[in-house]
Request: fold
Amino acid sequence: MAKLTINGKFIEVKDGTLILEAAKQAGIEIPTFCYQADLSRIGACRICLVEIAGQRKLMTSCTTPVMEGMEVNSESAAVQESRKGVIEFFLSNHSLDCPVCDKAGECELQDMVYKHGPRKGSFKEKKIRFHEKDYPLSPVIIKNSNRCVKCTRCIRVCRDTVGVGVLGSMGRGAHQEETSFLRTYLDCDHCGNCIEVCPVGCFMRRPYRYKSRPWDLKSADTICPYCATGCTSKIQERDGEVVRSISKMGKGVNNELLCARGRFGFDFISNEDRLTTPLMRKDGELVPVSWDEALESLAVNLGAFAPERIGGIASARLTNEDLFLFQDLMRSAFKTNNIDSSARWNRDSVSAFIKATGINEGGVSLRGALEGVDAIFIVGTQISEENPVTDYLLRRSFDSRWVFTMIASARAMKLDSCAQLTMRHDPATENALLTAIAKVIFDDAGEKAAGLDCAELFKDLSLKDLSDESGVDQSDIGAAARKLFGSESATFFAGTEFLRFPDGLRGFSLLKELLTALGKKITVVPVLDRCNQRGAWDMGVHPAFGPGYEPVENPGLGNAGMLEAADARQLDALYIAGVDILNNYPDFETAEKALSKLQYLVVNELFLTGTAAMADLVLPVASFAEKAGTMTNQEGRVQSMSPLMKPPGEARTAHDIFSALLKAHDFEFNVAKPKGTFEKIQANVKSYADVELLNERSDKSLTGESGNTVSSSILEKEADEEDQTPAYTAEDLPLTLITGNHLFYSGMLSSRSATLGSLLKEAIVEINDTDAKKYDLKSGDHVTVTGRYHEGRYAVRVKNGSRKGVAFIPENFKTGPVNRFFRKGEWSQKVRLKKVDA
Amino acid sequence: MKPILLKNQFNPEAYKVESYVAGGGYESLKKAFTMKPDDIIQLVKDSGLRGRGGAGFPTGLKWSFIPKDPTMQKYLACNADEGEPGTFKDRGIINNDPHLLIEGMTIASFAFGASVSYIYIRGEFVFGARRLEAAIAEAYEKGFLGENIMGSGFSHDMYVHCGAGAYICGEETALIDSLEGRRGTPRIKPPFPAIEGLNSKPTVINNVETLSTVPSIIKNGAKWFAGIGPEKCPGPKIYGVSGHVQKPGLYELPMGTPIREIIFNHAGGIKGGTFKAAIPGGITAPMLVEKDLDTRMDFDSLAAKQSMLGSGGVIVMNNSTCMVKVALITNRFFSHESCGKCTPCREGTTWITQILKRMEDGEGRPGDTAEIERLCGMIFGRTFCPLGDGATMAIRGNLAHFRDEFIYHEEHGRCKV
Reply:
């Protein structure tokens, strides 16, 4: 600790604290421009200069750490005069076009001039002009360099945090311009963090420009509806249209960061295709009906079937409250355990994933998982594309503390550049790779591991076979193993590839158990791609367990089981809340056949999706911007969101609909607001009992232990029982097709966002550079992708450094949905590419 | 005084290694290898050699800041980014006697244990860069560079790195940025380069002239060196004289030679008129007038006159010179070369240039001079690196003596001279 005085005020702060931060702790504000917590410090703008007793010159408080006995003055005459001078300099070449500037009203320069500035400036020369009109840098970013104050926050966030580094300074001195190389269009994450950190109106949101003034906006705090990183943001509307989503500096897990989806992907809310009235099928046509008619028909029709012939699938994008009521409705009103929270993940995969990653054992904070850890192992996730902000947060953490990082995946990703070891394995071979690593550790551990339960298992394993199967060099496997063995603690990031290819979880569990048995501290952070996937599981939207992972007596059918049963006419009615099964289930044909055989299909939806179009009853629902509730992110952090506006037309919240149905079934049912339902959750689900809804980076908002174990048939399988994925090898289908999320596309919502659509205009297939050379393809070429069941036309994207022989098509393209290539829930297929003329 | 640094200036063959060796070259390196590295540092400390780049920091002391850990990678960077108007002393050494620099650098590297050194040369010095590259290749061939030099067990690699045309890259941390392949802007100190420099490793940055002085110290000893010139900053110094003199050029003289002697005895006196003013050490240094002509040209004597020795580039002006124009040219250089990182330098120098341009164009307004003075006050002492301070020092030095010429421009819209 160091003791010092600032403006005569005595304070004691930690050693190494910056004067600026120390002043903040003492309640003294020092103005800053180029400084921003979590960005690299440059001390360039000179507005934060302070006087330190004994120093000849004024010093930058944003770069100078405190020293014992220091006497700082941040308001002396010299400091104030210097501050005024710097502000006058800022304004000398600033365009001062505040009346037409988007930033006016929330501009840091305006605030600073108002607070500290000279009342009069004497600049009478010609201002430097970079251009006449704003120029676009991307479909979502537009720029006005005449307003720039050269703080370079944009450059630093782009380079150090986002990791793309496409911004830089052109020119020198007063002619310096922070922009893209020669002002060309950007090829980047389009995350818009440059806009967020810009203190003036230099970087602007293109879709928002000239739409509103900040003081005309109505805002609500919300949670991003895309991936499960759980970013908090503020969405803002004007005249009933959501025009902007902004992050909240210093708040939430994400601080000032958002990704393209979180910052620009909200416009599906105002999409004209939103459903506004309940639709009922009459004479083969969906026609508008009243809510009374719709709900009555639903209760009567669903109630008519035997419990085992009913099923329900709810989206992992609904709130905890919605999901809790949904499973209550299915279980208590319709008496069925045929209930699932996704059209993608297999029931048993989910159980195995929960068990292997310890989701039922309570939340882990990302920050805590990185603190003091010796090694990081990222496996089974495309973290840079699926959870962009998690990628940013990891990169940012490396900035202050370097940790040995290993990445195993089939595709290259942006985070590779932060990793010391990258392993490119064949798709679906996580099991072989992780088992191989475990094997090396076991052999290295010698006697220490000899007595362990798993010792038998390793006896017959051959490292060479495992290495061959996964396609990863033995030297890399050895390096990973030795790093893990040599570490005291390690954090694993395990993602959705394990849900697609659950075999990998066996290797994962084995490695985790072995390391734990050897005394290592292992933390697992699940990496999920739907905002409330973890909440859906916590709420018991699963055939085998209820809220809080309480095992149910008669486990029901999962999504695959339900579709199979429907196909066999053993299931007659489905209630689907917000899932487009036709586009998501990894077997389009089966899904379509099964749904068409149903006698009664009810769908809650925002849009008339393919699935909704087949329904007998379609209920229009509220989007995330129109409802209150809580969501649980991948860490197990429970966060609340509040509604910004009313749903369009007659649309209702899912919470209202489920409540009404529960009320219709049970007159005693107490219809509550979402807040009341959350209290009910806290009373009924042990892991939620002590959760505080803070929307802060506090561990108090993490879920606790559920106290229940989840059983999994996949993990308990013996190695020799392994049901090999039917490896279909054919000479003419040389590539293995896999799927996942794209940076700009993840699920139904993103496909309805015009802004995200402008970032990726067509369906793409991604291959690596070697294959591109082999097939004479380059980015932008068009190909037909031919599999055993489907053929589609895609644009080629070449990604350097991915595993060769792998083709990747993102999920959820409206044109060219990838699930048509798959069969029977298997997430990979063999395909070939053929170039076609544009 | 017999020239030491410039002894090969008029020997057109001196750039070749054979000729250099024939003149006793690389003997100092050989001698250095018989000494302990720490003794070399002590010798340089004892000699009193101060950096010739402008700041005058004791060279031996700078070397001694480098951590002694032998396993640690260390670097030497030679600052050959000679870009200040009026300065052309390093170019003379680089073009005509490149091996002298290479020898000096190798000795320095041996002294503090740098296995790699870089010559960061100004991008415009294409001839010099080629010459250095050729000389380095020769030195490798002759075994003065590379593995196990002269059987000493010391290995050293040397590279030439061309700058891309920024004056700021002569600032040592900006030079490191540029060497690392970034846009050159000064870095926050601390950490100082001696602790965290190039590639975050300990790095010494020395001027060409400083390093070229080292071989003679090794050869003749510290006492010999300390005996030349004033006690506190001894040694030979190259003065580059330009402007209104009869014989502009490089003159190697003992440190502390009076400026009058340099201009009138060595450079042949004023050309076309009478003496008006002289800038003693590159355009940053505040100018001297008639009454200051007996000032000795060393760090301390000039500092006492509120000026500085800087690089020792003397610019002489006769009585036909318009001082507003001098101010404009000087300041335009600084605003052009301001890196843009910090606000006062970036905006302030540009603003002052705009005012001076107007005054020079006959569009001066009452109060312009006072405005310039006010702006200098807003820049000085508040910038990130010394570039902004330098700009204000130059103009303040000018105003201190010739304020009336500025006022004349304000009032009459033309020159007084």
Q: What stands out?
A: The CA atoms of residues 261 and 734 of chain A lie 33 Å apart.
